[in-house]
Amino acid sequence: MRVVEIFYSLQGEGPAMGRPATFVRLAGCNLSCTGCDTDHKQWTEMTLPTILERIAGERVIITGGEPTLQMSELSELINLLGTRGKEIHIETNGTNPIPEIVLKKIHCAVVSPKRGSDFNLDYWAGKENVHFKFVLGEEHWCWSTSQLKELIATMPTLPKKRVWIMAFGTDRDLPEAEIAWDLALRLQVNYSDRLHIRLRKR
Fold first, then answer.
1. Residue 127 in contact with residue 109, Cβ under 8 Å?
2. Which residue did the predictor score with more confidence, 33 or 88?
3. For the domain with range 2-198, which CATH number is right: 3.20.20.70, 3.40.50.300, 3.90.400.10, 3.40.50.150?
4. Of the residues 94, 125, 133, 139, which has the maximum number of CB atoms within 10 A of its CB?
5. Contacts of 63 (CB under 8 A, 6+ apart)
6. Of 115, 74, 73, the residue nearest 94 (C-alpha)
């Protein structure tokens, strides 16, 4: 697999925020988002046994980039992690469906749809282990307050208990965090902070 990095840390955002995990960051993406925190030019080809040797703890978060671009190897990795009793999380932009047989082995899939991309919200909304993370901000791929209000109001299939709103930003004080907080409260969904940004951690 094309791997950017593997490291052990605490999850800084989303439904597993604050929980320890081994992060497996895969290379490659089918979108071009300004401010992406992944260096797509630097990666290493790793075998699955090599990746498994570097997994610490009970929780694994597979992220990117876009992990589903390596679907065949990804499916095999998820299967191997499952046989070892690992709690498997994955982060995806939602443009590529994950086969049902693979998705069922994932404890928590976080779909972060990017504005203007080709994602199937209805497909993901019907999966009970899928959470949605909408990033609020001014970048071309981020969502505005009005867009999120309309989306959540007009999508009755979106499960509010599994929807998270998070402010985009790399500044420690996250200037739009308060707006994201107020919007999440108004829409009766979850707010996600970015603890790794605030604390300057990975």
1. yes
2. 88
3. 3.20.20.70
4. 94
5. 23, 24, 25, 26, 90, 91
6. 115
CB count within 10 Å of CB 74 equals 20
Model confidence pLDDT, tens digit, residues 112-159 = 999 999 999 989 999 999 999 999 999 999 999 999 999 998 888 899
Verify cis geometry, omega within 30 degrees of 0, for the bond prior to 65.
yes
Return d(Cα 22, Cα 88) in angstroms, integer.
Answer: 10
CA distance 77 to 182: 39
Q: What percent of the chain has pLDDT over 70?
A: 100
